[in-house]
Design brief:
556 residues, alpha/beta, Rossmann fold, 3 domains, six-stranded parallel β-sheet, 20 strands
Length: 556
């Protein structure tokens, strides 16, 4: 039996985090969780980042998780603070990110009785249940290690998703003789050998196979295996937005992440087998599920619930992505035929034609992408908010490594960018981190600039500033002939940055953006760059393209 040690509830929380390798947490102390903060202070092994809003804390944890591949942890007190975390948890849930929230609760005897305690919420766990994979309460000090252990098991088994724990304040303040289980170590889901044999036979028979890779490949650390198989097959690789960087976008077989473009969709129609790995075929990626999928669809997916949810595969392979790709590579290794090298030329032509089409229809959009590309080091980590500038980049800005492109995809959450960028920079201090955000989204959580300055976190924030909710304005105009309640009165973003103690800059041309961005990346301080330049709707996306064609006619 494991040796027991007398600990407070707060100390049991911290010890559980340490035992699972956590070295950074994000949060704000409150009256009900002070025992946790005292344990953090006395233990000293975990760095705490003091945030300005619980939403910012949880977004930081999410950015940390996505950029590092480790669990991101945020701390919350009871009631409104815990509910503030629910939006980031929903973002993590939709995008398969392992984020853990440890929250306090009112005294045990009062839970659910609505007696009028401060921070009382009738059903805290019920509020976050829809946006977590698993949530639970630790009702005694002795239970805390096991509940924490189960939270890590839930987050790290199969498809990563967030967990939440609540602990009554009397339990956090109390003490008991406590023992700890071994840290959870996940096991990889192995593929069925018959499914691998069928998939290999289908790929062997295909004349024009193609691969579509998603975030599941990144979560599985299967980048090397994906590249080996693609080169073995000579198969072009498209990626989803969450999968950007899973395959270097300057590789001869990289078709990029612009499968939504009509030219890419036409290319897909000429392929006879699609190997989809770690992707869910979501609405926007699958163009409202109107993509013409090749006759043979092989779907490798670790979550059984996702197989057949949106598209029915010819050959389903329930497996961890890395294990399935390794097995396929081994199964096909004895093939004597060389891969078709002409596919690289096809991919190069496809990408050139997509860029030429976008440049002819929306030259300012391509200038934006090229200005950023020129100013970014190859190893830069890009963290996005939702804005037109980020929409251009999610399809056309090249990314070369996994976990270097962070995007709030499924929940489409405004305000994600800045705090998630802070988390990403703390996870990857050796890499430049650049946040792409709009003026509206930036103001959701701009207060976290204070945290960046306090902890000297030198990230760069690029604000595409059109003084409006620019994604919505043209939609309103197209549907109703006018816009309404989407124009913004913004602060001076340069002065705002400086008031926090950050550096503020403004550019007046795309060429200037390249120069100023390069200088900001070299800075040792947080920097905000205001970009009040026209950014057109991203013409490669189905919705904006349809809007363009309704106004100007289809391009020749």
């Amino acid at each position: 039996m494991a040796q027991k040690t007398r600990l407070t509830g707060g100390e049991a929380v911290v010890q559980s985090l340490v035992s699972h390798g956590v070295d950074t947490v994000f949060g704000i102390p409150g009256a009900h969780n002070l025992s946790v903060y005292e344990a953090l202070r006395s233990d000293g092994r975990i760095r705490h980042i003091l945030c300005r809003h619980e939403q910012g804390a949880a977004f930081m944890a999410d950015g940390y998780a996505r950029a590092s591949g480790k669990v991101g942890v945020c701390l919350s007190t009871s009631g409104p603070a815990f509910l503030n975390v629910s939006t980031p948890l929903g973002t993590a849930y939709c995008d398969s990110s392992p984020v853990l929230c440890v929250a306090s609760q009112i005294p045990s005897e009062a839970i659910g009785k609505e007696k009028g305690y401060i921070h009382e919420c009738r059903d805290q766990l019920g509020c976050v249940s829809p946006v977590t994979r698993w949530c639970a309460r630790a009702s005694t000090v002795e239970e805390i290690p096991d509940v924490m252990h189960e939270a890590f098991a839930q987050m790290l088994t199969g498809r990563p998703r967030p967990s939440a724990i609540e602990i009554p304040c009397d339990v956090l303040d109390g003490s008991a003789d406590t023992s700890f289980p071994q840290a959870f170590i996940p096991e990889r889901l192995q593929p069925d050998s018959a499914a691998i044999t069928r998939a290999a036979a289908a790929l062997r028979a295909a004349q024009r196979p193609v691969i579509w890779a998603g975030n599941g490949v990144i979560s599985s650390n299967a980048v090397t295996e994906l590249r080996q198989l693609a080169e073995q097959l000579g198969a072009p690789v498209f990626s989803t937005v969450l999968g950007k960087g899973v395959f270097p976008e300057d590789h001869p077989l990289s078709a990029g992440s612009a499968l939504v473009h009509p030219l890419a969709q036409n290319y897909l129609k000429r392929c006879d087998a699609l190997l989809a790995v770690g992707t869910r075929f979501t609405q926007e990626e699958a163009c409202d599920w109107k993509l013409t999928i090749p006759e043979v669809l092989i779907h490798i997916e670790v979550d059984a619930a996702e197989i057949g949810r949106n598209l029915a595969p010819t050959i389903p392979v329930l497996s961890d992505a890395r294990e399935a790709l390794r097995a396929l590579h081994h199964e096909l290794a004895s093939d004597a035929s060389d891969p078709d090298l002409t596919r690289s030329a096809e991919v190069s032509e496809l990408r050139e034609n997509i860029i030429a089409d976008c440049r002819s229809l929306a030259p300012d959009g391509m200038q934006l992408v090229e200005s950023l590309q020129a100013g970014l080091p190859r190893e830069a980590v890009i963290v996005n908010d939702l804005c037109i500038g980020a929409y251009w980049c999610r399809r056309l800005l090249d990314c070369y490594e996994p976990r270097n492109y962070v995007y709030p995809w499924g929940f489409c959450t405004l305000g994600f960018g800045l705090p998630a960028g802070i988390g990403a920079k703390l996870a990857r201090p050796d890499r430049p981190v650049v946040v792409l955000t709009g003026d509206g989204g930036f103001l959701f959580n701009c207060q976290e600039l204070a945290a960046a300055v306090q902890f000297n976190i030198p990230l760069v924030v690029v604000i595409f500033n059109n003084n409006s909710y620019g994604v919505l304005k043209p939609q309103q105009t197209e549907r109703y002939g006018h816009a309404h309640e989407v124009d913004l009165v913004n602060p001076d973003f340069v002065a705002l940055a400086q008031s926090f103690g950050a550096t503020g800059s403004r550019v007046t041309s795309w060429n200037e953006l390249t120069t100023v961005l390069g200088q900001a990346i070299q800075s040792e301080h947080p920097t905000v760059i205001d970009v009040p330049l026209h950014v057109p709707l991203p013409i490669m996306e189905p919705g904006p393209r349809a809007l363009f064609e309704s106004q100007h006619g289809a391009p020749a």
